[in-house]
Amino acid sequence: MACHRTAAIGICHLHTSSSSHAPSKEHYKVLVLGGGSGGITMSARMKRMLGAENVAIVEPSEMHYYQPIWTLVGAGAKGVASSGRPTASVVPSGVKWVRSRVQEINPDTNTVRTGNGMEISYQYLIVALGLQLHYEKIKGLPEIEDWVKFKIGSNYSVQTVEKTWSALQNFKEGNAVFSFPNTPVKCAGAPQKIMYLTDAYLRKTGKRAKANVVYNTSLPVLFGVKKYADALWEIVKSRDIQVNLRQNLIEVRADKQEAVFENLDNPGETKVLEYEMLHVTPPMGPNPVVKGSLLADEAGWLDVNKETLQHNKYPNVFGIGDCTNLPTSKTAAAVAAQSSILDRTISKVLKNEKPDRKYDGYTSCPLVTNYNTVILAEFDYSGQPLETFPIDQSKERWTMYHMKADVMPHLYWHGLLKGFWGGPGPYRKIMHLGMK
Ligand SMILES: Cc1cc2nc3c(=O)[nH]c(=O)nc-3n(C[C@H](O)[C@H](O)[C@H](O)COP(=O)(O)OP(=O)(O)OC[C@H]3O[C@@H](n4cnc5c(N)ncnc54)[C@H](O)[C@@H]3O)c2cc1C
After folding, report:
1. Ligand 1, atom nearest to 36 Cα
2. pLDDT tens for residues 5-47?
3. How many independent structural domains does the chain possess?
């Protein structure tokens, strides 16, 4: 190889001649895979650390989406246009954007192959490829263009989020049914946030008396952290919402508007529920490129150290966000906290020093419980609350709704994606007078 791998080198293009057979080859000191929340954030931080010319990012999508706001889009409280910006506007200036899909990662040769025929070699690799949605695993789920007709919606993708709002508006009477799959998910609160908003919308429009609101979840609990689960149980009771645990959506019979759930405690036993509106949270799994590489753990997730975010076998590989096997809830808030740790880890590795800062699993989920209230869940690896504000965050609050709807989007676009927001850790200390 024509370029040596010292800390001082910048970009060095190896063979840029493009013969029709040989792949075009490039080399970067840091290569970032995926231009979602984690990928853009880390490319901004790496640009600051090493200079833009040393960083490249591979991302095929022309648009970048702030997914957390889809909860409000599905309920008609925000427009879908507010959730997206051109990828070109969020890739840090000067950083090379490879507009293609990663097809193969080969950590033994420090190379990545992309869909547009490039072979990119790297000195350090940051994997931020997110997770994969699996709508196709639900038998009978119709083509997306037919969802409005069949009164189905899903806040989990940009193609389907507005269908949720259509289903809400078209609701006349019957069951409003919400599912939670039998897989890891991103933002584990989102499947029930839309349920509370639907309940509120039906009350506002005078239709609640003719509706049953039903939440069928694969989980054995309403929420994974007891403090917030207790608060949510009070809410579902007071609003007459029916919660059924260990129920997994396996089939949709759209023409009859029926949803089929399997009882996970008694496999093979199914229940058919007629619906007037169905909100689907799809099964999710590891990114297929990660799963098919040597970087994956047994389940297919990127195998990283839970404290440093460095890969467990390849020390020049790092991971952030939903694609990893970090045992915490997959959220953009977690990405923020991870980004400052990873920044520190990489800066240490570059100096041949030992990473010294540890990720505590911080994650956060603003549980929207109405059009003007939120319970702000924040917790760590141990499932213990790790709250920023010196108030009881398990209470529904207007201020937290304002944070979710108005403050956090700004923090995302102007703080996180620019590499300036590393989570609320330092502020938590100040808010609690240095006691937390
Ligand atoms: C409805 C909903 C509500 C949510 N609510 C919240 C919330 O309230 N708070 C919160 O903190 N988080 C929330 N989240 C979760 C949050 O959006 C994600 O956890 C976060 O975006 C994860 O960032 P990421 O970079 O790991 O993945 P993503 O942001 O999903 O980015 C992955 C990127 O990888 C790209 N990619 C995939 N495959 C390839 C490939 N082969 N080659 C190149 N690129 C590829 C994708 O195009 C994508 O851009 C919510 C998510 C949803 C869907």
Report:
1. 31
2. 333 333 333 333 344 567 788 999 999 999 999 999 999 999 9
3. 3
Query: Do 142 and 278 sit in the same domain of this protein?
Result: yes
Residue 229 lies in a domain: yes
348: number of Cβ within 10 Å = 16
- The span from the CA of 12 to the CA of 28, in Å, is 7
Query: Domain with 159 in it: what CATH number?
Result: 3.50.50.60
Q: Mapping DSSP to helix (H, G, I), strand (E, B) and coil, where does residue 132 land? A: strand
Domain housing 406:
363-431
Residues 91 and 104 in one domain: yes
Is 10 within a domain?
A: no
**Shortest-distance Cα residue to atom 2 of ligand 1:** 68
DSSP letter string, 312-350: SS-TTEEE-GGGB--SS-B-HHHHHHHHHHHHHHHHHHH
> Looking at the annotation, which residues are catalytic?
187, 365
Instruction: Please say whether the beta carbons of 106 and 292 come within 8 A.
Output: no
State if pTM tops 0.90. yes
Cα of 341 vs centre of ligand 1, distance in Å, is 19
